[in-house]
Fold 26S proteasome non-ATPase regulatory subunit 2.
Amino acid sequence: MESKTISCREEMDDKELIDELHLLVDKVRGSDPKLIPQTLNMLKSIIRSSTTSMTSVPKPLKYLSPYYNVFKEAYDNITDPTVKKECADVISVLAMCPTGGNSAKDKHDCLHYCLLGTRKIEDWGHEYIRQLEAEIVEEWMLFPTPTDSLISLVRDIVKFDCNHHAEIQACDTLMEIDHLEMLPEFIDETTYARICLYLSSCVKYVDHVEASKIIKIVTEQYLRFKEYVKALILAIQLNDKVLTNKIFKSCKDRSSLRQMAFIANRQLFPIELDHGNDDKELVSIFNNSQMSTYFSMLARELDVIEPKSPEDIFKTWLEPTLMRPLILGENLDSARQNLASSFVNGFVNAGFGSDKLVSVDGGHKWIQRNKDYGMMSATATLGLLHLWDVEGGLTPIDKYLYTQEDYIKAGALLGIGIVNCRIRHGCDPALALLSDFLDGSGPILSGAVFGLGLAYIGTNREDVLSLLIKVVENAKNVENLAVASLACGLVSVGSCNFEVINMILTKLVDARETEAAKSQYMRFIALGLGLCYLGCKDVVDTSNATLEVFSEPFKTTAQCLLKMCAYAGTGDVLIIQELLRNISDSIVLPTPSKSTNAEKPSSKEKKKAKLESDPGVAQAAAVLAVAAIAVGEDTGSDMCQKILGDMGRYGDLWVRRAVPLAIALLYVSRPHLPIIDILTKYAHDSDVDVSCSAIFSLGIVGAGTNNARLSVGLRQMATFHKRNPSQLFMVRFAQGLTHLGKGTLTLNPLHTDRQLMDPCSMAGLLIPLVSLFDTQSVISGGNHYLLFAFVGAMYPRWLLTLDEDLEPLSVTVRVGQGVDIVGKAGTPKTISGIHTHTTPMLLAVGERAELATDQYDQVAPTLDGVCILKKKPL
């Protein structure tokens, strides 16, 4: 009964409202013009005061919509300009009503009559503003040259949005009409954080011209409100050296300067300090001289100082008893098994300064149990053990420089380069020691050149590059040219250094008419060229055009590698589509004419010739390039993974070989269960190269995570591949990567809450992945020392908190999976699945930390890496 009574009352109220509105409409279209102004004011008052749910049309609008044309006729008949504007306001509001208003929407009547009216848009609420914004965007597309009145209306709308918590709406509208430069004048202290966060998150979804414009606007706002650290992060994204230097000069806060130095140093981004700057701590941060000290402190805190042997990682006692002699090589001292143990020993104990194989008494005996290039890699692991410790690492390596064995000497030279990776020492020991051996040949030259590349990665130093360019110019064979090109690419990564690019291109063009043009080392030369363009986008077009003079398949392979580097981490959809066409369209080479007098080549020569001229390698390069471009953007990575799944099922053999490597690049140090399952299936493939690539990829996916499920799977794989030496070597290598730095290091190039991609880390990942296109040359040949390029990507996955004097500070933090809060109302939680820890601690990829104490303020926008905390005043 009560519900029926309420319903009857509502019907009566509606009838009264309808009668009242009908009476007012009659007055509007009546013959007495004096009544119209009062009538229009009453109508506007009724419409404004009506309340209803968000999902239904207000009743006054609903009942007035059939009279829409009546109001338009009345507007035409009104002669008083003021009354005419009042009537236009009512028509504009009625035009957004769906009942009978579809034609009005198509004609943009809401916008047109708004421009003819009083323009008091704040009277009609958010829904009316949204309708205006939608029609403005459509109108802008039809008439790109706007009128002054329309520009003025846009300003009023943006001002309304910014004053009524609809900043995101304002940003979208201005981006649609390409007038984002209007926004800054409406930003204040209460809205800048929300607006800047939203705009910076939109960067990944627009082209690079629009992205640069957005980043510059956001950076200006951060500088305006003295958010120097956030401004620096965006300036690094933009790769703008002038802007970053300006930010450093503008900031006067000591703690903020030091925090910015830590972020720039993690990126190895060059910063020019003022000559009068006498802050020794700031210089020390840029030199990374405290890296080894901080890492040792982390190791002591986590109690992982004790060295581990390869057997501790392999856990062969868990494997079947009958398999152990065959797997371990207890009855047969396998050179390949010893090489695998050397790599595992180096990667597991990286940065800890001690192990149970090489650094102990009699370590030289272990090195001599390897063969040729195996001795070189085993010696170079000494550099891994003393990673970042220049003072303590050179002494144990130096004694191997005086041996008569060239391979051991080459390994010592490479080890010196590894020790100095990411460290800037005042004495430049790497340059002083390695430059003396650049006149050598064979492995000594390779060790010295590649060591220089790793020691000065990302520095773009002219004195180092001048030495390496001479090696490129005087290279006697294609292998030396390849290693020298890679070293030049590492030193000048992302700098577009003209001298390096010109020299490598010249040597490439000179080699195209020789036998070297068919060598697999040619792709490394192209990769070295590509590293110079890392992240530089369309600047690479000139070099791409130069490569047109080459024949297939090298032309397409080299062009794919250049695009891979130039657009790495950008998520550029157009380039990805272009690469997908390369994958689907296999290259058909002309059939060589048969000669009756020619001698028949041996089966070995046939296999080598097929490998060198196989057009499928171009498809493999395109597959890896797709993944490299999609890195860092979650939506793009997920879509890329689905595409790679189809490639693996239906693609050619070379495509299937590259698919595991591409998946690994998308999920570096992120051992998600579905990814592990996919790669495990590929690891059991009948093709040796597909299987080896997948096993190697498992190591990259689990790098530094100590993932228990992956560790068990790799032990089972060791048993499965007990009679396959190539796959078994890869299993051991993957086990070493999984326990990288005893679980304290990562290979992931994304840092600062995944906002920045370290180009040096990406370069360190791409070299081993490209070398794995042909696994046999890496495993069976002497190219396995290229795997030490991982050193450029290795970095502690720590959260280390320091006070304002850079002294370690232990605080409580909450850690959980990061949550995207862009555009969400209020103050939403930024993490989920919270656990409480005390710093220093380890952070997995995708995790985020928050302070759990009120005693300190953080200087960095996110707790990631090395963070400075400021004590709150009492």
Notes: The radius of gyration is 33 Å. The mean pLDDT is 86. The CA atoms of residues 677 and 710 lie 9 Å apart.
